[in-house]
Amino acid sequence: MTDAAELRRRTQELLTACPPGETDRLDFLRARFDAGLAWVHYPEGLGGLGAPRRLQAVVDAELAAAGAPDNDPRRIGIGLGMAAPTILGFGTEEQKRRFLRPLWTGEEVWCQLFSEPGAGSDLAALGTRAVRTDGEDAEWVVNGQKVWTSSAHLARWAILIARTDPDLPKHRGITYFVCDMSDPGVDVRPLRQITGEAEFNEVFLTDVRIPDAHRLGEVGDGWRVAQTTLMNERVSIGGMRIPREGGMIGPVAKTWRERPELRTHDTHQRLLRLWVESEVARLSGERLRQQLAQGQPGHDGAGMKLGFARLNQEISGLEVELLGEEGLLYEDWTMRRPELVDFTGRDAGYRYLRSKGNSIEGGTSEVLLNIVAERVLGLPSEPRTDKDVAWKDLAR
Fold it and tell me: What single DSSP character describes residue 124?
């Protein structure tokens, strides 16, 4: 049984063998993965030791104290938070050994090819088609379009869901794949946002050939596989670990303390309410992570992601109002394709505009409200007349 003392010993062995100040960053990360200290709750040989998830904090604290490099988790968040748990849960042993190590070290960036312009918030209505070829070396030919794809311009790999049987109802004819973004037929185009940047992309897939060996789960079982991705996505967005007064509330509180001339009674009352709600959300996220340590995430992550979106939008609105005329200024509207989203390192105008997307990305707030109502609170589901109709017969 791996305990905290054993993990400290193993961590010190790693630091002795690969001193952070003398070891190349990538070499250190690879050695950490091979030592089972990347994510300790993963199986041995896959970056872990089969230890309780909560003990990861022991390793992280030891490495941080020694000045060891991390894997830049914000840059590779889709791989860490969505692709990795799905590969672990549904991948073959060969897939796990091929993808998990370079994913964790950041050598290979991942993106998510789920959303489509014709499906809107109804992900199960997706129309991207994957048709299997005959022959000994079976592969799938994929055609379609995906949209709102973060990091597609940086990614080597993508998690992809496509329709493989249009004769079945929309939730049952979907299969889950790993797509090589460098393959012929993959066309990534920037989507410029209200912030001026093109953090998102649209991706066109034209006769893209995916080996059957890059399928995750059984044919037609893609919706069930995708639920693992989506639940982990919502936890990673809404349940991230932050310190007290971290996240969006931090810059507003800092402005309030440093600029007393901006204060009014109304903004004071609103700031107090949002500060308390932010702290409640932070503690709820900590509880969610403790529950996660006992197994796979449930649908509670939908509620956390809902709160994250609402709070970010309310807090950024208060910040712009508090700053008055200064809040109307915008630092830079240059068209660029960033590697990550930096809410707290930018100005108030950026936070205000970028937070508008929080209620869309990771599942729209409207869809998440239904999930919370039906799967967390146990309320009756809304009438749906399309659940048992073949996808090809649905009105579009």
Answer: G
* Whether the Cβ atoms of residue 45 and residue 100 lie closer than 8 Å to each other: no
In the set 199, 202, 233, 319, the catalytic residue is 233
Could you tell me the CA-to-CA distances from 204 to 116, 155, 174, 354, 370 in Å, in that order?
Answer: 10, 14, 18, 25, 30
Question: Are 237 and 303 in contact, with CB atoms under 8 Å apart?
Answer: no
How far is the C-alpha of 94 from the C-alpha of 2, rounded, in Å?
26
Query: Pairing state of beta strands 110-113 and 157-163?
Result: parallel
Active site residue 218: no
pLDDT tens-digit map of 39-96: 999 999 999 999 988 899 999 999 999 999 999 998 999 999 999 999 999 999 999 9
Q: Which residues pair with 211 in a beta bridge?
A: 139
CA–CA separation, 66 and 181 (whole Å)? 36
Please state, as a whole number, how many other Cβ atoms lie within 10 Å of the Cβ of residue 270.
18
